[in-house]
Amino acid sequence: MTDAGINFHFDVDGEDFSSAGAASVEVKKNLRQLGFPPDVIRKVAIAMYEGEINMVIHANGGTADVFVLPDEITMVLRDQGPGIADVSLAMQEGFSTARDNIRSLGFGAGMGLPNMKKYTDAMEIETELGKGTKIVMRVKI
Amino acid sequence: MDRNLKIRKIRELLDAELLCGEDQLDREVYSACSSDMMSDVLAFVKDQAVLLTGLVNPQVMRTAEMMDMHCVVFVRGKNPTPEMVELAQSSGIVVMHSALRMYEACGTLYSAGLNGTKVAAE
């Protein structure tokens, strides 16, 4: 790996719940090939997976960019969804605005954003109602 | 008492039908978790090796893959789709289904020594 790092870009399809998570699986495989420690890979994969699911559930999809450096992995998730009305409320475990049909799919338990924060060393949320949300997550190696 | 169990033994205890991963049956596992909510599974990383669930959609397999799990057991006679079994195969995850209900399946494995994982206080 060079100092310039390796980048991955994914378009997350908002129409197809069954394909949600495909980008995270891909990132996981790539990080494994690059030889990162399993606990780092798992943290990145889970945080990105929850982010992907959120984009599909709430924002009709979006994009995910992963920047891999020898000492840090950064994930940038962008969507043009409805935005998050109250970020501090959304960060509380158990709070969810997901509809019942999402819960029947195994998500919408209000653990997505808390899990993303828990598994990353830093997380920043920029959101605007009606415009969309950008989430940047960093995991240190 | 904590005990390692071979996946083969889990299959036997739950009288489960194997759907893929026959070559992994001699793998030993030492903890399990059960939930129909995948975000709850994702919330507690403690090297759980077996997931018992009654939820049927591809995200079960993706969750198991994210958590580096070795085996997924569908309870209450639930049957995963061929697409799900394919996903599991590509990740080397054993998939089986059992007619037992969740409570019985968990109790059976717990009694056999397969422990859950404690949730550490934050």
Kindly report how far apart the N and C termini of chain A lie. Answer: 14 Å
**What is the helix/strand order of chain B?**
EHEEEHEHEHEH
Unreliable stretches covering 5 or more consecutive residues of chain A: none
The number of strands of chain A is 5
Low-confidence stretches of chain B: none
Count of individual domains of chain A:
1
- Total number of helices of chain A: 5
Largest interface here, residues on each chain?
A-B, 29 and 22 residues
Please identify which CATH superfamily of chain A we are dealing with: Histidine kinase-like ATPase, C-terminal domain
So, CATH architecture of chain A?
2-Layer Sandwich
Task: Explain what this protein looks like in three dimensions.
The complex is a heterodimer of chains A (141) and B (122). With 141 residues, chain A is of the alpha+beta class. Chain A has a single domain, classed as 2-Layer Sandwich (Heat Shock Protein 90). Chain A is 35% helix and 28% strand. Chain A has helices at residues 22-34, 38-59, 87-90, 100-103, 112-118; strands at 6-13, 61-68, 72-79, 122-128, 132-140. In chain A, a hairpin with a 3-residue loop joins strand 4 and strand 5. Chain A is globular and about 40 Å long. Chain A starts with 5 loop residues before the first strand and ends with a strand. Chain B has 122 residues and is of the alpha/beta class. Chain B has a single domain (5-111), classed as 3-Layer(aba) Sandwich (Udp-n-acetylmuramoylalanyl-d-glutamate--2,6- Diaminopimelate Ligase, Chain: A, domain 1), CATH 3.40.1390. Chain B contains 5 helices and 7 strands; from the N terminus they run βαβββαβαβαβα. In chain B, the strands form 2 sheets. In chain B, strands 2-7-6-5-4 form a 5-stranded mixed β-sheet, with helices on both faces. In chain B, strands 1-3 form a two-stranded antiparallel sheet. In chain B, strand 5 (50-53), helix 3 and strand 6 form a beta-alpha-beta unit. The two termini of chain B are 26 Å apart.
